[in-house]
């Protein structure tokens, strides 16, 4: 379930490779989808906390960006 949510989130975030995300299936990519879903959910929770923890927000923004880039490289090298 988390994997499919991560796939859909990445498809929205990375429209240029949406077709690849929809068609490629691999264990490595499934793990990236799940990691992305968990990271985005955590980021959203951190953004909604009061008081805001800017350090955690920054860390998870970076983590989400790194996963996005890893997915792009993985998909384009297949």
Q: Helical segment tally?
A: 4
Largest sheet: none
Radius of gyration (CA) equals 13 Å
- In N-to-C order, the SSE pattern is HHHH
General shape: elongated
Secondary-structure class: mainly alpha
- Sequence stretches where pLDDT stays below 50 over 5 or more residues: none
Number of strands: 0
What share of the residues does DSSP label as strand, in percent? Answer: under 5%
Helix content: over 70%
Q: Mean pLDDT, as a whole number?
A: 95
User: Termini distance?
Assistant: 24 Å
Number of separate structural domains: 1
Description:
The protein has helices at residues 2-13, 18-23, 27-48, 54-76. It has one domain (1-77). It is elongated, with a radius of gyration of 13 Å. The chain is built from four helices and no strands. The longest helix is centred in the C-terminal third of the chain and has 23 residues, at 54-76. Helices cover 81% and strands 0% of the residues. With 78 residues, the protein is mainly alpha-helical. Helix 1 packs across helix 3 and helix 3 packs antiparallel against helix 4 (54-76).
Summarize, please.
This protein has 78 residues and is mainly α. The protein has helices at 2-13, 18-23, 27-48, 54-76. The chain contains four helices and no strands.
Q: Could you name the key traits of this structure?
A:
78 residues, mainly alpha, 4 helices
Strand and helix layout:
Blueprint: H1 2-13, H2 18-23, H3 27-48, H4 54-76
């Amino acid at each position: 379930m988390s994997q499919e949510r991560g796939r859909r989130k990445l498809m929205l975030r990375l429209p240029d490779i949406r077709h690849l995300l929809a068609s490629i299936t691999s264990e490595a990519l499934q793990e990236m989808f799940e990691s992305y879903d968990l990271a985005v959910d955590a980021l959203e929770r951190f953004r909604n906390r009061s008081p805001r923890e800017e350090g955690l927000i920054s860390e998870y923004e970076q983590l989400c960006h790194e996963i996005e880039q890893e997915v792009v490289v993985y998909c384009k090298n297949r």
